[in-house]
Structure formats: structure tokens, C-alpha cells
Amino acid sequence: MSELIRVAVLGAAGRMGATVVRAVQDAPDLELVAALDAGDDLARVTAAGAHVAVDFTVPSVTEANVHALVDAGVHVVVGTTGWDDEALARVRDHLADRPGVGVLVAPNFALGAVLTMHFARQAARWFESVEVVELHHPDKVDAPSGTARHTAQGIAAARRAAGLDAVPDATTQSLDGARGADVDGVRVHAVRLRGLVAHEEVLLGNAGEQLTIRHDSFDRVSFMPGVLLGVRRVPARPGLTVGLEHLLDLG
Ligand SMILES: NC(=O)c1ccc[n+]([C@@H]2O[C@H](COP(=O)([O-])OP(=O)(O)OC[C@H]3O[C@@H](n4cnc5c(N)ncnc54)[C@H](O)[C@@H]3O)[C@@H](O)[C@H]2O)c1
Ligand SMILES: O=C(O)C1=N[C@H](C(=O)O)CCC1
């Protein structure tokens, strides 16, 4: 039998971290060697001999965690959101000095959410209008969701590549926030509602027709196959990978 992958979980007391701890413990090819939360010393990850660390913490600490882990030669799977292009560029630069270390940052590990983003990018060039609505539990600290940002950025890139005009919108008078956030020219709306977990709709419109692409995560177990895939694959992917779609054979 091949060697078990030794895994550390950061944010282990959180909603996602606790679910990842259980998933790693249940996986026959993985071994949970450290479970850290706020206030714990990151040095425990290396002391435990972790090959891969999984970060589901908070947007304010995740980047610092990644740089420290990269310095220690530990591969990282990051699910924490709040990353912007500048923060990703800093990690990419840092990894250039650490050949052999891999970091995967993915705003959503649910396979259906990754497919939603993929289908939205495919559909984007054929529709005049598009807006993204994300719906989450009210304990979420960031808005819009990392998934919605990634979705809108992908749609915007597909529209640019197809030479489409700006999305039509005659609004000249509105209350602040009524038209949502502008992500690369795509409007993104964030709903927070008790009872929800993580949901997204991409609305695409043409004269006389609408296409709706919707994904629902009803339970955090929906993210686990993607997280475990990341843990298994990241050691063989040096450098920075952004998005789980790069690990799936989506064509
Ligand atoms: N990529 C995905 O598929 C996916 C899915 C769900 C959630 N998320 C993201 O994951 C993050 C966590 O979500 P959550 O719902 O589990 O939040 P949560 O608030 O339940 O958990 C965060 C945990 O991180 C801990 N923490 C804070 N600072 C820390 C530090 N320096 N070191 C270690 N732990 C620390 C907190 O104490 C808490 O236990 C959010 O950014 C969320 O958007 C991503
Ligand atoms: O519960 C959360 O918080 C989630 N955050 C991610 C995001 O911001 O996209 C993914 C879905 C759940």
C-alpha cells in the first residue's frame, strides 16, 4: 500500500473545518495529523509532518497562513474566500522561489458549483444580458461570495473574448446597492437568509427567452469530494492553481 497523505486542517472548529476533519478521518488514503483553530501555533503543522494543509479559516488570515506554509514546504488547499488578484499574485510570486510546492485556491469545492461556473462561461457569449445571484446563510462574513466573484469574472472574460457589448442597463436613478455589485461589468446580488447553506443562480437573458443555471449546496458534505480531490492532487501540481475546474476534465 502507498504512503498515507498526512493532512493538517486549519479552521478545524469551524463549520467547514469540522466537516473536513471528519472527511479526512474517513478517507482510507489520508491521515489527519493536526487540527488547528484560532490561537494555535502554525508550527504544529510542520511538527506533525503534514504533507498538505487545508485552510478553511477567515479572509483576514488565510493569505498569511498560505505564505507561512509555503515557507515550510507544505502544500496547501485553500477554501477560504476573500482572495483578490493582488493576493493571488503575491502567492504566485512566492511559489516561484519554492519549486515543488503546490497551492490550490478554490472558491467552491462542490462539483455542481464548478459545473455551474463552467456552463455559465459557455453560455455567456450567446446572451445579451446576464446577472448573478448568490444566496447564503447569514453567518457568512464576506459578500459577494467568492464563488459569485469567480463566476462573474469567468462570464466577463467569455463576453470580452466574444466581443460583446456591455450588458444593457438603463438605470440612472437607484438606491445605493439596488443593482448589486459590479464585478468586471457583471452585476452580482447577495442574499443572506437563515436556513440557507450556499446557492447560486446565473440568469442569462435574450429577447423572448431566459436561461437559468442554478446550483444548491444543501449540506457542507457537498464540498468534501472536491476538497479531498484537491488534497490528493495538489502535491503533484507545483505553483498556484486557482479553481477546482483545473483538476476536472471539463474539456
Ligand atoms: N471553497 C469552498 O467550497 C467553501 C465552502 C464553504 C465555505 N467556504 C469559505 O470557507 C471559509 C470558512 O467558512 P466557515 O463557514 O467554515 O466559517 P467559520 O466561521 O465557521 O469557520 C472559520 C474558523 O476559522 C477559525 N480561525 C480564525 N482564525 C484562524 C487562524 N488564524 N488559524 C486557524 N483557524 C482560525 C475560526 O475560529 C473558525 O473556527 C469562508 O471564507 C467561507 O466563505 C468555502
Ligand atoms: O458558506 C460559505 O461561506 C461559502 N462560501 C463560499 C463562497 O464564498 O463562495 C462557497 C460556498 C459556501
Automatic annotation (TrEMBL):
The active site is at 136 (proton donor/acceptor), 140 (proton donor). PROSITE patterns: DAPB. Pathway: Amino-acid biosynthesis; L-lysine biosynthesis via DAP pathway; (S)-tetrahydrodipicolinate from L-aspartate: step 4/4. It comes from the Bacteria. CDD domains: DHDPR_N (cd02274). Residues 112-248 form the Dihydrodipicolinate reductase C-terminal domain. InterPro entries: DapB_C, DapB_N, DapB_N_CS, DHDPR_bac, NAD(P)-bd_dom_sf. Its EC number is 1.17.1.8. HAMAP family: DapB (MF_00102). Catalyzes the conversion of 4-hydroxy-tetrahydrodipicolinate (HTPA) to tetrahydrodipicolinate. This is 4-hydroxy-tetrahydrodipicolinate reductase. It comes from Cellulomonas fulva. The gene is dapB.
